[in-house]
Amino acid sequence: MADQTHRQLHLGAILEGVGANQSSWLDPDLPGDASIDIGWYIDQARLAETAAFDLVFIVDSPYITPDTAPHFLNRLEPLTLLSAVAASTSRIGLVGTLTTSYWEPYNVARQFGSLDHISHGRAGWNVVTTGLEGAARNYGRTEHFDHGVRYARAREFVDVVQGLWDSYEDDAFPRDRASGIFLDKAKQHRLDHKGAHFSVAGPLALSRSRQGQPVIFQAGDSDEGRKLGAQVAEGIFTIGADFDSARAYYADLKARATAIGRDPDHIKILAGLTPIIADSDEEARAIDAAGRGALDLGKLLVQLGRAFNYHDFAQYGLDEPFPDLSGVTLNSYKGQAERIIRTARDESLTLRQAAYRFGDWRSQFIGSPETVANEIERWFREGAVDGFLLQVTRPEPFRRFREDVVPILQARGLFRTEYAHDTLRGHLGLSVPENRHGAILPSPAAVAAE
Amino acid sequence: MADQTHRQLHLGAILEGVGANQSSWLDPDLPGDASIDIGWYIDQARLAETAAFDLVFIVDSPYITPDTAPHFLNRLEPLTLLSAVAASTSRIGLVGTLTTSYWEPYNVARQFGSLDHISHGRAGWNVVTTGLEGAARNYGRTEHFDHGVRYARAREFVDVVQGLWDSYEDDAFPRDRASGIFLDKAKQHRLDHKGAHFSVAGPLALSRSRQGQPVIFQAGDSDEGRKLGAQVAEGIFTIGADFDSARAYYADLKARATAIGRDPDHIKILAGLTPIIADSDEEARAIDAAGRGALDLGKLLVQLGRAFNYHDFAQYGLDEPFPDLSGVTLNSYKGQAERIIRTARDESLTLRQAAYRFGDWRSQFIGSPETVANEIERWFREGAVDGFLLQVTRPEPFRRFREDVVPILQARGLFRTEYAHDTLRGHLGLSVPENRHGAILPSPAAVAAE
User: Fold this and answer.
1) For this UniProt entry, which segments traverse the membrane (chains A, B) (predicted)?
2) Superfamily of domain A10-282+362-447, CATH level 4
3) Which of A96, A301, A415, B319 could be disulfide-bonded to A313 (CB atoms 3.0-4.6 Å)?
4) Mutation for testing the B interface, residue in A21, A138, A144, A393 having most B CBs under 10 Å
5) How far is A248 from chain B (nearest CA, A)?
6) Confidence check: pLDDT of B151 > 70
7) Is A427 a known ligand-binding residue?
8) Three-state SS for A62?
9) ipTM for the complex shown
10) CB contact under 8 A, A103 and B107
11) What are the pLDDT digits (tens) for B77-96?
12) Domains of chain A: which residue ranges?
């Protein structure tokens, strides 16, 4: 394990426009068109950069219905969004979500590779397999890939993309006007991949960036998802529902990585964070209660159904025990769906209770800035996380976190006061991956722990 | 036809890093890494915007070999590039090339639709079908689609993308906090397209932009290419090899559009332009001769072969007549290849002559600023073009064009001195397309001729 004295917390901001839940957009401080306003995203990214956050993070899904949560109904696509943010920031990492189920590896390698150049080494790709079955019909298929097939494809897809990113050795371009040699042709490499799911010849028309390759993120929670994460992820986005489940997840992922020969410190596990911060713990709890009281139960049931491919929960009695779903195939957000079923059973929840628990992003950290900072420190020191991804939608909670909580974390030596690096790998303490065709620029300096 | 007194010339800048030919990169004023340097692109786009150009234009091709021209070997991908440029400019149009042969319509609709929002209505998509057969092997196929199939797919692909862009009526989002209504669900529309090549359900998670939809560009020269252009294009990029062939192309395209019921003024035909500008005509001709004398014949043969799917021309005698290629299938840049064969036959060119003529971008306009402006005016007034796309690689020729030629065109009333609009449709005098589900924002003001 890393030296615990110098181990640093990592913080990211999930920029989500008007919010992936059903209620955030009601905040009058939040512009109703935030999800399609690039100026809004740039402003939030700059605020996160001012606070020296490691990265901003963009979630995604290529399927909607009329009942989808407001942000997902009408929003900017992650790659184009992040390229515009790249041109308007200078240090903060830029992580975008993109599915391996409905893209071509060659196009993905080009676009994330380009984002990595445009941002001068700040790009990351959050690898997902797409949960919602309806996505298939946007891509010429009548049926979504089975869960297992999706993960097998994802693994091969990532291998192909990483192979394409190494198409050129780092000194492949002498660009020597005197001799007329632009490219050293021996240092351009075809991939010639032929696998179970993809055949890609290459080479990619793009050299490596300052950080070598974009950072691979992953967010799966099912057994297959965890296996893929342990194999390929350098960053993990996990839901972090509560301390015990987060610690169990953390231990499991790090053990899986160790078991296959990886350094567990090279996978940074970041939990979602939606704190409710007020001047006192009492006030924060009152805000939480009022907010939960104002939620629309019908919308919560829709949102709850999302993990089950928009299963219709309105058909069940609200105050009956959480329904038996053993007949429902879990081919969407399988890990999340399994967790909901398990929790509902273990805690004997009614459907109403489950809707309030899982139908809106639930805050784990509620209290004064000191209380929230204490919880963050506990999770970080006691093996539940390497950091957090703060859900950024409403302006005031983001302001309080930056202005009231971050300074406490900094004063305790847990979080940087200014950037020590200018690549995403630098911020996360990840090394530059060796070029498989020969590394001549290992740049160990860029890798030193902060 | 449009009122000829007020008819305005359109100017675009093809931003091509170190250049799509084999020689531009040798210019010491041009950074060797221009093709992967977003700062270089942003600088050139801002210079073009300062000169009130209609648009910048990014060409593309998803296949390379070690012999590919320097720019194509290692370059930024068009969508990510243009999103970064969008965030760094405010008025100029942004047109990117993307192939319909190896992408998914749903992803293309999302990315160009997002670029259109990010740029506040300045996006354009140059629809191509991919010329080089090797591209197939980057996308899991052993063979490239046949020329005819490529164009049939392209037509259907564009229809699907435009259908997805109209997923929402323009007033679909009341975002009314009092009633809690974010979306008027009746104004979200599925596409449910099932065609010969694509099945796409929709809806797209994106509303229309200020200009309604991105502008469709196209660049085909073959019969199939011209047919597609007449059907779907709002802008055409044509090579413009000489006045007579440009005028014939112009007349043909406008007649094809008229024949199928379109207003020929709603297709703007822009020819490629690589002028050689000097203080006098004699000096310009001397620069041209010196430049051509310095070309590497071996590289010219490779470049000549590109239109023929990298056919190996080194096997033939240089001073023999241009070889008989009747046994070679023209499935790459078919229109271009046909033009080379036709010209070589009509003018009895040797292979050496053909290599010099077609193996490097040949300048049609050589002379003093006055001479170049005269030629531009002649082509524009005498029915050869609606405007030009200036090839922007080496800084000094771009500077001379902006500082010495553009002012002459402005003094003659041919080209704007400042922007009258802030969308690409506005610059090009194109109307906002009606939303197929009901137009409530026709915004005729945005469409007035400049």
Assistant:
1) none
2) Luciferase-like domain (3.20.20.30)
3) A301
4) A138
5) 36
6) yes
7) no
8) coil
9) 0.92
10) yes
11) 999 999 999 999 999 999 99
12) 10-282+362-447, 296-358
